[in-house]
Amino acid sequence: MKKFINDADAVVREALAGIAAAHPDLRVDVEQQIIVRADAPRPGKVGVISGGGSGHEPLHGGFVGMGMLDAACPGEVFTSPVPDQILAATKAVDGGAGVVHIVKNYTGDVMNFQMAAELAGDEGVEVHSVLVDDDVAVEDSTWTAGRRGTGATLIVEKVAGALAETGASAAAVAAAGARVNEASASFAVALTACTTPSAGKPGFELPEDEMEVGVGIHGEPGRRREKLLPAKQVVALALDAILSAKPLAAGSEAIVLVNGLGGTPLIELYLLYGAVAAGLEKAGVRIARNLVGNYVTSLDMAGMSVTVCRADAEVLRLWDAPVRTPALRWGA
Amino acid sequence: MKKFINDADAVVREALAGIAAAHPDLRVDVEQQIIVRADAPRPGKVGVISGGGSGHEPLHGGFVGMGMLDAACPGEVFTSPVPDQILAATKAVDGGAGVVHIVKNYTGDVMNFQMAAELAGDEGVEVHSVLVDDDVAVEDSTWTAGRRGTGATLIVEKVAGALAETGASAAAVAAAGARVNEASASFAVALTACTTPSAGKPGFELPEDEMEVGVGIHGEPGRRREKLLPAKQVVALALDAILSAKPLAAGSEAIVLVNGLGGTPLIELYLLYGAVAAGLEKAGVRIARNLVGNYVTSLDMAGMSVTVCRADAEVLRLWDAPVRTPALRWGA
């Protein structure tokens, strides 16, 4: 294993110490593994939090800040955050208007967020949850009942965070997040497996001439393995899966994310985006907004995902609203 | 070779088509390989351009926009842009106040930018050049006489671009860029070699338990190979090289870039940043501003670089000035 680490068991805490040093405008509790926006809790503002296993950076810690998340709770690598941790984050951002949990659909995450929500409820904090399950590759997976939550999480967090900033209620913020999830579909392809620090070796074996079609962000199996194809055919596969699962009427507007899984360079992501843009144009879909880069990653996995989110004027307005976080920043 | 490409010879043009689709606010000439800020040329404003071989994305195309570069000319992967291309970019951004070329110190880049500057001069465009040679690992290298230009290029481009935005003269913009370069030192370590699309295999062999200390951004040899070390010792090596080459007085302020070379995930870069911050604090250096991420890359190379730039109040003011580019954006 070749990684810039000191101790496989300390990777998350040491990375959190680095985040704390790099972003003094965030409050980072390294021991409890919580990243909180400096001005939280804000009285009357709904708190928006997310979390999940580490290894998907910048998700979620990189999205904490004005206009997006109020807090993130990273678990150990590919391991759910624990209920106490989520509870502490929930209480840290509760300004009296309630808290929205944005939860990717993995069994451990769902269970632990739900337990934290119940504990918070016992302490008088109103918690609403949004489940993200945008990955259309497979129904049920290694750690998931139903579909996995992946790239759309970023869009859900941006839109919910922007709405919370306007003083909307917790129910309204959660409903907006749920609508974005419902309108989103993602599909990923891996060229290599990722290596967790604790395992020290790739999570699966993939022959030099094959790719995993429909991979999950922890290396979960996809639909099938097949011979490596040219980029435009990879994009065609992904768009076909996305548009079959969630058809878009011609003339629809969409937010599109072409996302690297950590080990794929930006030059390839832009090349892929060109093919995605051409494919969606052919389908009559207008890309109203886009992001190209490494946002929802899988450690060092070479791979990519495409997320297409149907977006109405309200969603676009919330997408465009100012945001100031380590990994997403505009208008502020 | 596992890459998302269609044709090894078309990678740069196809990536440029993707950049054009993703960023309609830039003018991209895919055939001539030039990316120009939409509002260029602006009468009376100095044009700032850079370029070099592709494969280092987001450098340079990702830094075109308000407050930074007016144009970028990407060559083929790891290959200098040609004089005609640089000349066309120079003329495209000349608003009558002259143009500044920011050139990384590689022999082909230096030669071709100089030729373009002479041709532009013949056509009445005043061109000033800034040579970036911040990599303190080695004197002379595979494609370089003197020191290589690497991570500091981003800081030079930001500061020069911000100064140009204020209406400063070409001579002043170039002088500011040169001062930033002079105040900067970088050092890189590779865990793996990168693979160019045309070669189809890694540029060098590196055993599973070794790292290349002082590597260049094209995989040029560094100072030595040695056994893989824990991250904090890797950082200590890098900071020792940097502070030996360009000592910083205790109490100095610095802009620090912890940069991934393309295949290293963000969680490791933050972990490294924590060690860099601790090391510089020990040396009495105050990190006034920082960037952590993949900015000056080497395709899919797993590796990192550290850049330390001594920064006075004027440099910090220009660093903080609004910027609006695909890869760097704040205050706008």
Fold and architecture overview:
The structure is a homodimer of 332-residue chains. The first copy, chain A, is of the alpha/beta class and 332 residues long. Chain A folds into 2 domains: 8-183 and 321-330, Dihydroxyacetone kinase, domain 1 (Rossmann fold), CATH 3.40.50.10440; 184-313, Dihydroxyacetone kinase, domain 2 (Hypothetical Protein Tm841, Chain: A,domain 3). Chain A has helices at 11-22, 83-92, 107-122, 152-165, 170-182, 231-245, 266-282, 313-320; strands at residues 26-29, 34-37, 47-54, 71-77, 99-104, 127-132, 184-190, 210-213, 224-227, 253-260, 286-293, 303-310, 323-324, 329-330. In chain A, the strands form 3 sheets. In chain A, strands 1-2-4-3-5-6 form a 6-stranded mixed sheet, with helices on both faces. A 6-stranded mixed sheet of chain A has the order 9-8-7-12-10-11. A two-stranded antiparallel sheet of chain A has the order 13-14. In chain A, α7 (266-282) links the parallel β10 (253-260) and β11. In chain A, α4 (152-165) runs antiparallel to α5 (170-182). Chain A is globular, with a radius of gyration of 19 Å. The termini of chain A are far apart. The interface between A and B is large, with 60 and 60 residues. Chains A, B: Residues 7-330 form the DhaK domain. Chains A, B: Its EC number is 2.7.1.121. Chains A, B: InterPro entries: DhaK_1, DhaK_dom, Dihydroxyacetone_Kinase. Chains A, B: One of its GO terms (biological process) is glycerol catabolic process.
